[in-house]
Amino acid sequence: NRIVAIVGRPNVGKSRLFNRLARRRISIVHDEAGITRDVISTEIEEGRYTLLDTSGLGLTGSDTPQRITAAAEQQVDFAIDTAGLILFVIDGLSGTTALDEQIARKLRRAKAKVRLVVNKADFDEARVDLAEAYRFGLGEPISVSAEHGHGEGRLREAILDALGPAPEPDGEADDAGVENAEEAAPQPYKSREKRPLRLCFLGRPNVGKSSLSNRLLASERLIVSDMPGTTRDAVELPFTFTGRNGRSYPFSLIDTAGIKAATKLAAPVEYFSRLRSLDAIQRADVVFLVLDALEGVTQQDKAIAGEAVKERKPIVVVVNKWDLVHAAFEKPEGLKGFASERDYREKYERAVFERLFFTPGAPLIFASAHSELALDRMMNAAVKLDRTLEKKLPTGRLNRLLAELTERTPPPVVGSRRFRIYYATQTGRRPFRIRIFCNREDRLPESYRRYLESGVIREFKLEGCPVYFDLVGKE
Ligand code: GDP
Q1: What is the reported pLDDT for 326?
Q2: Which among 61, 191, 292, 413 is placed 20 to 30 Å from 67, CA to CA?
Q3: How far away, in angstroms, is 427 Cα from ligand 1 center?
């Protein structure tokens, strides 16, 4: 990975070095790049890597020598787990100490690359005891003066050398939804690139999956039947959808046999059809979850929705057969218990979000295969979700947000202590994957996880796209 962490015992000049590399003055770094009170990060060399200063980690204020040693250990452990490259800073003027030795011992066993930096080589390198530095067994030391800038160029080069070439930024011709590309987290991402957007219809038998598919494909390629369970094979059908605005967009429909009720089919058929649906969900970029307008949200809908949620796919909820609801309210008797079509729609909407646990902001569309109601809105929703999936979450903004969220509503105390976030960075897309370095992953209660998740979704406008937190505990 392209995270560079600075470690070293207190007073060797870590913060100075951080500021020197960040080309910032101390006060500004703390105000702007400060993410949590514990770890400070900033993007360096146009985002070619992220630099971390771990100095604050583990310190409490009233620090005894034992506390300082423990804190240094914690900082080094954190760096080992987090960073691809560690800059181990020692003080060239005052010489090495037992704590330096202790840190070096840990670093020699680390998988991450380590570069030894001898600081305070201010004017006269000869005064710095490099021979002592070599004894750490961490390769050739780089001498610098964080204070005056001596050796800075060499250090910058050494860092870039150690990291190797930066991955190519995603060639994204389409700029919609992609923001701050230059500030992007530097990990490689999955991108849909040039292939068509893959869709699948998911829903219980008879909700109208095949009818909707047929409408979209504008042909009778799929057999629609009043008998549940007539579409048997999962196949991919490419098609182009042209919206009302005249723009065409390439799609591919993964047709599935649907998830059948166990009572309707013999067990092995049921088993294979489930597998096929799962395969379709996994292959899809966006899942259309189809519900029946008259039947409402059933237990089976709930189970089926769960499958898509589990696979972390963005979902468009399609309430099909709306023509029947509309027709009912055309008649004087309407539908029992509902004042109007609008009242029915509002109650339906509430039922969906109360009974199905979706990613916040999943689009809900009232449609009809028969009257071709809202087909273009379905497709637009899918395209919008797909674009959103391409977003990059700038590390600085992400960490500032998490710091704000945890300040506004602190995590509950679990056991005797609170969940605490040190640092977070996006590590993937489709789905959004955010690695969070924290004190202990088991201190994050589900409700608080959802609070953080919806905060991230709101901040980065990821409505409808699942966000996955990958927690790495540090204690
Ligand atoms: P699937 O099992 O989910 O693929 O459902 P089908 O597409 O086979 O549709 C099941 C039944 O519902 C068929 O009789 C369709 O004609 C009917 N149907 C599908 N969509 C609509 C719709 O929008 N409006 C109405 N009124 N009936 C529909």
Answers
A1: 95
A2: 413
A3: 41
**Could you tell me which residue, 338 or 191, shows the higher pLDDT?**
338
Task: Find the helix or strand (DSSP H, E) in which 215 lies.
Answer: helix 209-217
Per the structure, the count of domains in the chain is 3
> How far is ligand 1, taken at its centre, from the CA of residue 320, in Å?
8
Residue 465: name the closest of 385, 390, 398, 387 by CA.
385
pLDDT of residue 175: 35
Q: Is 344 exposed, middle or buried (0-12, 13-18, 19+ CB in 10 A)?
A: buried
Spatial distance between the Cα atoms of 207 and 151, rounded to a whole number of angstroms: 69
The residue nearest atom 19 of ligand 1, judged by CA position, is 208
In the sheet that holds 248-255, the strands lie side by side as 235-242, 248-255, 197-202, 286-292, 315-320, 364-366
Q: Is the pLDDT of residue 210 over 60?
A: yes
The reply to whether 368 and 296 lie within a common domain is: yes
Number of C-beta neighbours around residue 117 at 10 A: 28
- Whether residue 326 is contained in a domain is answered as yes
Q: How far apart are CA 430 and CA 413, in angstroms?
A: 32
List residues near ligand 1 (CB under 6 A). Answer: 203, 205-211, 224-226, 228, 258, 320-321, 323-324, 368-370
pTM, full prediction? 0.64
* Final residue in a domain of this structure, among 357, 388, 419: 388
Pocket test for ligand 1, best of 204, 211, 215, 378 (most atoms within 8 A of CB): 211
- The whole domain housing 142 covers 3-163
Q: Does one domain contain both 101 and 237?
A: no
- Reported confidence tier of residue 381, pLDDT bands at 50, 70, 90: very high
Pairing type for strands 413-414 and 40-44 reads unpaired
99, 77: one domain: yes
- Mean pLDDT score, 454-466: 92
- ipTM summary value: 0.94
Classified as helix, coil or strand, 318 is: strand
Residue 86 has pLDDT above 70, yes or no: yes
Kindly state the tokens that stand for 383.
């395209």
* pLDDT for the residue 276: 61
- Residue 139's closest CA among 118, 169, 160? 118
> How many Å apart are CA 325 and CA 342, to the nearest integer?
10
Q: How far is the CA of 262 from the centre of ligand 1 (A)?
A: 21
User: Do the domain assignments include residue 406?
Assistant: yes
Look at residue 43 in the predicted model and tell me its pLDDT. Answer: 75
Question: 451 and 403 in one domain?
Answer: yes
